[in-house]
Amino acid sequence: MNKLEKYARLLVEVGLNVQKGQTVIIAAPVECAAFARMCASAAYAVGCREVIMDWGDDYLARQKYLHAADEVFDEVPEWRKNFYNGYARQGAGFLRISASDPENLKGVDPDRLRRASIASGAALSEYRNAVTNNGTPWCIASVPIPSWAKRVFPDAKTEQEAMEKLWEKIFAAVRVEDETDPVQLWHEHIKRLSYYRDKLTEYNFKYLHYTNSLGTDLMVELPENHFWAAGSEISKGGIEFVANMPTEEIFSAPKFDGVNGKIVASMPLVKDGNIIDNFYMILKDGKIVEVHAEKGEEILKNAISIDEGASYLGEVALVPYDSPIQNSKTLFYSTLFDENAACHFAFGEAYPMVKGSDEMTPEEQKAHGLNISKTHVDFMIGTADLNIVGITHDGEKIPVFVNGNFAF
To answer: Which residues in the chain come in under a pLDDT of 70?
Structure first.
């Protein structure tokens, strides 16, 4: 079995953990059709009921945002609502193969991007809730496409060389090797992540205090009865799955109105086909009250104004600086990879990281400190000198990160 076949099998058997008789939805760019078909074959090999494809195209997406009638960006077709909400209701597994030119939508009217996000968030809320609350298995992974590969490796002499280099980095990040079984390697990796997950949940910190030389100085309050997650998750139907491949993070949710201070990004953020770089945020009582960016500031301002919850944090994630993706010394221009190279936050929707919250209404979740939004955007803040101090409910201070890595 070659590496491509191993990777497809990994996504199906560990990422989604496809069950016999289950429907599988695969969303993929048309440029990734060959690999998407491998994933479909792997899903049928384990007995899935049916594989349904949802194809995307960078070129057509750009043409739409540049030239479509203006009212299009306030609408979502009925078929798309029924497709995603309906299959989520049925408990289908959702595999998204994410690959795009990081600047595909550069120059597009930011207001069109903002309105399209609002419309999509409202129309596909049932699907989004299923994903956020683990109502059904889902997994996001990537394969190279030429425009992305050339962005990551601009010095490559040919397009083929850039593609080969990016494939090499992706295979390393997802633990697909020639002589080993990636399924077994992932089970071992999940076990390692679970150690930190359990340790952090046991500490039950009241606050985390972040500082580094970039200028981050942030106090993050955590909700009562919060817990941490890492590696794999369990769907409401009892299926263990891995939502992101790769994943190196241990994550939870902050108390949405309990974050104060300054966050300085350590890596660029790709949002809506645009690169946002050298940016920082000021937060007061949880709300992002200032944003500044050398590049893409208007895109960032639009992103935090999708709805009220978009200007509050919904995720806090810890990733050791000494991690495989960071050690690869590669800037992927892809949140899926770059977020697993560094500690990060997300503004927008919180995952249900308070005990019992997956059974609560959105109003009840908010009352327990969880942020509610139609968006969720990760951005990276980890550095080699990042220090994080955990503060317990009785005021004890315990080092969590020292110089970018776990202190325990």
So the answer is: none
